[in-house]
Specification:
Blueprint (H helix, E strand, L loop, with lengths): L2 H11 L17 E6 L3 H12 L4 E7 L2 H10 L5 E5 L1 E2 L2 E2 L4 H7 L4 E6 L4 H10 L3 E4 L4 H13 L8 H9 L1 H6 L1 H14 L15
Parallel strand pairs: 1-2, 1-3, 3-6, 6-7
Antiparallel strand pairs: 4-5
Helix pairs in contact: 1-2, 7-9
Length: 204
């Protein structure tokens, strides 16, 4: 288990203070969110952290794409699914289209430790609403979940693609491209540890 996972678990056990609903950029609406990730040691405390927030309810979690697809076929869909980009021996990206076919209104937000412009472009084509990095702080993750629900596919929800747009001269020449990605370069540059709890050593 890497340092980030230990930080997630430690923070969940310490019960993170909820992000205030009145903070700038947050919605008043409570969103129903499902989490799909094969790593239970990371998925379960992360879901617990999310559901502690007043604007999110995360009561369902799944270890695989097959499991969440089976649930979507039988249950009321959530507002959003946080889908791991790597699910054991499988990739999460091919599950985007089947999810959207079963539940067209569901927003799919990719959940990953790292992202790149290739995966972001593939996810955007498949219908994903954006990416969330586990290295973001909890407050930023909550904001991005609401932004992805309100404005799916916004440039800033694909941080590597936003950086690419900033470096393309034709976009800069148009004037709007630099402003559009500039706001989000601050987000991409704000990658810090999600939680700063000290690493805890366990016996054995």
């Amino acid at each position: 288990m890497d340092t980030t996972e230990n930080e997630v678990i430690s923070k969940a056990k310490g019960r993170s203070a909820p992000v205030r609903a009145s903070a700038p950029g947050l919605e008043r609406r409570v969103l129903r969110v499902w989490v799909v990730d094969d790593n239970a040691a990371l998925r379960e405390p992360f879901a617990q952290l999310l559901t502690q927030q007043p604007s999110i309810r995360c009561k369902r979690q799944f270890p695989s794409a097959q499991a969440v697809l089976a649930a979507l076929a039988e249950e009321r869909p959530p507002d959003m699914i946080l889908l791991g980009i790597y699910l054991g021996g499988q990739r999460g990206l091919p599950a985007i289209k089947p999810i959207k076919k079963l539940a067209p209104s569901v927003k799919v937000l990719m959940l990953t430790m790292f992202s790149n412009s290739y995966d972001e472009a593939e996810a955007l084509r498949a219908g994903a609403s954006g990416f969330v990095l586990m290295s973001y702080e909890l407050e930023e993750i909550v904001k991005l979940i609401h932004e992805a629900h309100r404005n799916p596919g916004a440039p800033g929800l694909f941080p590597n693609m936003a950086v690419q747009r900033e470096t393309e001269p034709e976009l800069g020449a148009e004037g709007g491209g630099a402003r559009r990605s500039g706001r989000r370069l601050g987000l991409a540059g704000a990658l810090r540890r999600l939680w700063r709890a000290p690493r805890r050593e366990t016996a054995g």
